[in-house]
Each structure stands twice: as C-alpha cells, then as structure tokens.
Protein: DUF819 family protein
Amino acid sequence: MPQTDSALITNDIVVFGLIAATLGAIFWLASGPTPFWKKFFAWIPALLLCYFVPAFYNTVGLIDGENSALYNPLGSRVLLPAALVLLTLSIDLKGILKLGPKLLFVFCAGTVGIVLGAIVSFQVMEWIHPPAVAGDTWRGMAALAGSWIGGGANMVAMREVYEVDATLFGQFAVVDVAMASALMATLLFIANRSEQIDARSGADTRALDEMKERMAAYEAANARIPTLTDLMVIVGLAFGLVGLAHAIAEPLSAWFSANVESAAQFSLDSSFVWVVLLSTFAGLMLSFTRVRNLESAGASKVGTVCLYFLIACIGMQMDFTRLFERLELIAIGAIWMTVHVLVIWGAARLVRAPIFYAGVGSMGNVGAAASAPVIAAAFHPNLAPVGVLLGTVGYATGTIIAYFTGQILRMMAGQ
Structure:
C-alpha cells in the first residue's frame, strides 16, 4: 500500500524491524531485569505498551501506520487467523469436564454476565448520557466483548468483523486494561483470604482438593522442551490452515452474498468473517486429536507472538492524542464489569462453590489464558493449569458469542 512522505520512516521493512525491536524490548523489560522495571510492569501491563508505543510512533510522525501494509494484509489476514488456530488447538475439553460441573457452571455464568453486562451498560448509558453510546460505540463494545469472553485475539477478530475505528478500538483497549486490572487486583486480594471466605459461606471444597492433585500430575507428565521439528510443524500447521481458510472463505462468502438475503446484516458476505470462523473451528477440531500435544511444545506461545505483533500493528494506526477524548467509556466498562461480577458471584453462591471457582471463572472470561493462570496460582500453585484450561475455552467461544453480542448491540443502536 503506498505511503505518504510525511512520516520519517516510510519503508515497511524498516517499520517491521522497529516494531519487532520494540516488542522485544518491552518483554525483556517486563521480565524485571531491575527492581524499577519489575515495579513498573506490576502497574503497567506489557500488552498496553505493545499497543501504545507503536501508537506514539505514529502520533509523532515517526511512521505512517495508517498507510502501512503491515496491518493489512500481514497482520489481520495472516497473523490473526494463525493466532486463533494455535490458541484453540490446545483446548482440553475432556480435562475441563473432569474439573466438575460447578466450576463449569460458574464459568459459563461469568460469560452470561459479560453478555448481559454489555446490554445493561448500553441501555443504562442511553438513559443517563445518550452521547456515550451514540454512533459507532456499539462496534467498540463488540470488540471489548470479544476480549472479555475470550482474549486479545477475539477482540482483534471482532475489531475486523465490525470494522472498529483504530482510535475507538484504542479507547476501548484502555477500558479493557483498566477494568481487568481492577478485577485482578480485587481477586488477588481475595485469594489470600479464600479459606476464611469458603468457611463462612459453607462452600464444598472436596472437588477442589482433588483437582489440585490431578493438575499437578498432568503438568508434570506433559512438559517438554520443543525441538526444531516441533516448531516447524507448529508454524506449518498454523499458516497452512490460514491459507486453506482463505481459499474456502472467498467462494463461501460469495455464495452467501448471492443466495442469502440477510447475509450482509450478519456480515456473512465478508470473506474475513469466514476466515476467522474457519480458523477457530479448525483449531477447535484439532484439539480433539493428537495435534493438541503440540501445546506442550509451545503452540500457544507461538500463537501469542503472532497476536502481539498484530496488536502492535493495530496500535500503529492510532492517533494517541485522541485516545482520551471519550472518558465516558470508562463508565460503560464499570457498569458492564459490575453486572458480570454480580452474576458470577450469585452463581457461585447458588451452587455453594468455593470462591476459587468464582475468581478463576471470572478471570477466565475477562483475562483469558493470559491472566487466569495468575489468579488460579494465587489460590494454589498447582491450580494454574485450571486457569489455562478455562482461559483457552474463551478463545474457542469468544469470537462466536461476541459476534452475536455485537448483533444485539447493533440492533439496540438502531443500525
């Protein structure tokens, strides 16, 4: 895509090198090489910097992100579906079922709380401050639903499906980080007092004790160091399926456009929507095969690398100076998160589930596989894989559920 001459760097290869170096520096600093950086990243998530630093480059004129070819087609059409494949193939549905019906019930209640929270927050803000939900706000909310049901890949997928403006997406990224960070801080505080809370509520913790032992055995049996063959298979599988998804999506979207009258209303005439759905479905189907063993060799880590490059490419398109123009979006996020917490807390109380179920179920939705293990480990180190299992479920369901949540919000917005 041609670029303007206003930016200092106009060569996309040079821009790619700059972005790669920036991401590497952020993650190295996030590892805590000094006490200062350890404290800094305890408050500022690396994810947010991966978005905002490229946005800063664009804002000051160092690069021209809007006209760069890095985001489209490389980022959105290649890296995103590859990330979806690798993040969903690791799902162990059988293992999740063994965790017990109460945990699954609470987790699903959390997902319902996210969908309900989107509807309630939109309606409440329409009553008290209509400009907050006017225009394309519903599109940004659909993207946020993708993040809070699944994760970053699902948020980016919804960003593409509903064509969310880069600045609006950045504003909702702030809401995402602010609300998720507040929730995590609260859950970490609760984790240190979980035994007292469970004792007072009369929760049944027998299944939780068995789970600790089972997860410890699973983790010990499956960990291994990836070989070159493992990594080549992971990369080949991911990008091979991306190519297949594109090959199928083009004629499929054309068929829906020609034969289904309401195809445009539900974005079924968009080839990209089908690429996202097919990539997610392919990864989910592979999770039932031996291919899922690639997770022990780092499949999800490779997928996360693709995801972070994609997030940086999205940040390149944003004008940083416009980021805080709509602080009322924070109010939407606060109402939304409150509804989610109330629903999942009520579900846990209903089935006398341990507070751990509510904590990891909530973060399994809002924080997905990146944050849920942190909360799970805060309750007990051996429970971290539970957070991974629940978090990865969101990657499979987040895109679909967030898509339909977006359709509801679209109707509420009258579009």
Summary: Residues 225-298 form one domain. The chain has a mean pLDDT of 85.
